[in-house]
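Let's sit down with a protein and look at its sequence and fold side by side. Go ahead whenever you are ready, and we will take it from there.
>
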Amino acid sequence: MKGMRYSRNARFNSEKICLPDTQTAILEKIFEWVASATESACDGERKSIFLLHGMAGTGKSSIANTIAMRLSAMKRLGSSFCFSRDDRIDRNAENMFSTIATDMADLDPCFKVKLAEALNERGLRSISVFTSTISWLFLIIIIFNLGEPSKQFSKFIVEPMQSLTGVGVFVIVIDALDECENQASILRVLCKQKLPENICFIITTRPEGDIMRRLKDLSHVLLWDAHEASKVTILDDIKSYISDCFAEAGLSFTRHDIEKLAAKAAGLFQWAATACNYITEYKAGANHRKRFNSVLLFDAGLDSLYTAILKDRISPHLEEVNSVKAILARVLAAAEPLSIDVLKALCLTKDEQQLVDDVIPALGAVLSVYGANVIRPLHTSFRDYLTDENRSGSFFVDLNQGHQDLVYATFGIMKKELHFNICQIKSSYLFNSSLTNEQLNLISSALFYSCQFWAYHLQSQKHMDVFEDKILDFLKNQLLFWLEVLSCRKASHVVVPAMELLLNSREV
């Protein structure tokens, strides 16, 4: 199981849970359902899927993270998998069931034994979910068939479960199914009338067409609207949230102030969160009362709030607006969330690098910077707003331009940094497993990103011939060094799709 694909960032986030004493009605409802699903595991009429749906900003992800964290503490969580458009390479449908199976194996020793038996079957190799080492000597390209998620579900979850007795019910939490690019493959699994009796799913999603159409009328699915709680309860929860935010920031607002702001949120937790970020954000000379009053004057809805914040934070001069949008385009187009240092390395000029240092802090109300200074939109709704010209108008961000800039940047970094024996290995007889962290760190984060994802950005371009000179230079002068980096960092699975992209292109 050591080589199984595993989405390292897809697990629940304990920092994104509901505040104490908020969302209590829906949390109680879900835990009641979990208890009933456990008790009726052998009942053919049981509801094996709890589908929580609601519009953007209603707190679905906070609910999912809270449920997953509590179930984990109770040793009842089989796995959690949170989709995100900001991390679509790692958190994708093809990785989901292998990740879930790995988590379940860590939870239950009996399941682990049965899963190991499944992995040893010869027939499995044709639908392997394993990474493999490519023989650099012969430059053999091995085409991996990762297998349909339905096949993975059958092999890695259903079959091991069938021979188990006396195990409890595994609860699987899937957040933001609507943000999965290959929803159809997962829906094929969820639509099965006969799911294993010792597995149940809690799923959150926006009420998007295909998901709702295929799941809403199934007998084993319990549908629940995130707005099912009374408006009074939601309003009280938002007031609690706002009060906590102001208290944490050391700001003093009256109860009446908090009530007015909560009413303005119109039931959207994300509106309240963004407004609070904007009001409480610290800057020299900041007037928090003035910001509060201005928020109350904004038009209702998330789009109006986002527009007002961007107008307040970005220069009105067209050239400067376009420069900021170019930075945002790279943040949104990135294959995985970028750190500030990597984003600066992927800039094409020194002026752009300086702009990153100015823009990211200025947009703190709508961009999240966490962990190792990793940047991502505070909420998916902000990404959706920026990439829809009808909603964002002059702040529209062209993802195609972001991908194009990243193609130039990644090829530039590889040309500059790739070279023979980059990890300074003393003998060609040594295995990659013997490399130390110090040696691996000789591959910069920006270079590793470039080696993994240049093809991901290139495939978005309609006219690849624009990059012909860079591609030919790469194939002639950097190809072997590129393979060396991927081998050292155990990322050889990207080689095949990258080479296929070039082979299938008629323009290069």
Notes: Strands lie at 49-53, 77-82, 170-175, 199-205, 221-225, 338-339, 367-370, 374-377. The chain has 23 helices and eight strands. Residues 26 and 32 are 10 Å apart (CA to CA).
